[in-house]
Model the fold of this input.
Amino acid sequence: MEKVDIIEKINGFLVEEFEVAPEKIIPEANLRETLELDSLDYIDLVVVIESNFGFKVKPEDFVAISTFQNFYEYVNDRVAEKVNP
Amino acid sequence: MERVVITGIGIYSCIGKNLSEVSESLHKGRSGIILDLLRKEMGYRSGLTGVLERPQLKGVLDRRARVMLPEQGEYAYIATIEALKVAGIDQDYLDRKEVGIIYGNDSSAQPVIEAIDIIREKKDTMMVGSGSVFQVLNSTVNMNLSTIFRLKGVNFGVSAACASGSHSIGLAYTLIRHGMQECVICGGAQETNIYSMGNFDALGAFSIRENDPTAASRPFDRDRDGLIPSGGAATVIIESLKSAQARGATILGEVIGYGFSSNGAHISNPSVDGPVRSLEMAVRDAGIPTSEIDYINAHATSTPGGDASEAKAIDTVFGKDKTLVSSTKSMTGHECWMAGASEIVYSMLMMQESFVAPNINFENPDEDSAQLNIADKTINKNISVFLSNSFGFGGTNSSLIVKKWTK
Done:
């Protein structure tokens, strides 16, 4: 899967399932603050990533993810790992 | 002792999605029962059920609230919005006062089954998501509504099988009477999904009159052959008279009696003695002669044994009065955990609009129901006081008496 497709997919479920306004999705913006994520929301984020990309996120991985860009990179890397372990 | 009044009612049921639709159905004797072929595919002995549309809450409630709400919680939310509106209670009032919630609910089958399926398949509990644990508990309705409406008073659920909704009102009435709460949101909610009734169906308690769904629920009729599961939610807002008067609320009725008992016998077989004691306790609590009760909304679910026992109990306590009786379950089916609250709402509508809703499909009495004065068609009648019965598995019984409010 190309990176652009991954970004499109992520933005799609953030808008659809997490109900974030599309215009608020800016690569440099803070993910947690923009989505107003609480501890429960992170669990749903793990579920939605698993169902969309087929890998399991460790909740502690979110510590290093600050911006949308970080999030895209993280998913992209994990998807690449899956293809070329 | 504080006087306790009803100021708000709301309903979401198979005979209407709001008070106005339900009132019309009650007047017309309209049934909400269908045959669901999916149930037959799943091996149900009976595919009959009350049918409801799931409310669309996207855009109404935020994602966090929706993720936590199971089916019956959605119904309860809609019914509560309506009841709060009728009561004239807004969010500002809820934020300023200690309004409580005691809501009846006794299962949440679908989220339990879905979560277990996911855990079995994924071998990872986190994959059930964040909402599951809040959906599966029997207290799911009160915990969700207390969060959505930011309630600050009493907060727990009642699980008493098919008497849950009735006991929720009785318990809140008791707390308000003793000055421990001023205003409580009560009610009952019942899921209707295909997973929720398989084990009840297993008992062979459901009607199999599948060729004629709207004639299948026939409480007190000689040819009844079982109940039809149904659901939705009903909310009843009760408060102290002082609280209602202080905020200038329109008072719809006064709860004047609550009776309860346990059969102390079989887990599912009905008794006559248990309901008689519940009825007598409610009448004693109300402090009025039985002759002052104009209408009895019977629990009668359309099972051979249950209806016969209730008929005997009503005849024991009200035999000399020949009080008008009907079972609205003839139209709604058995709304189980919700029924005790919904039947207060149905009876309140009858009291407000001066009619008795029909016990449809009552064509021939048996020897027990022949002793009762059953309304087999809509009757225009002024109702000053009504009584509503609810009985549940385990032999739990509840009777409530409500009086019309007169200044």
About this structure: The mean pLDDT of chain A is 93. Residues 30 and 67 of chain A are 4 Å apart (CA to CA). Helices of chain A lie at 3-16, 31-35, 39-53, 68-83. The interface with chain B takes residues 17-19, 38, 40-41, 43-44, 46-47, 50, 56, 59 of chain A (CB under 8 Å).
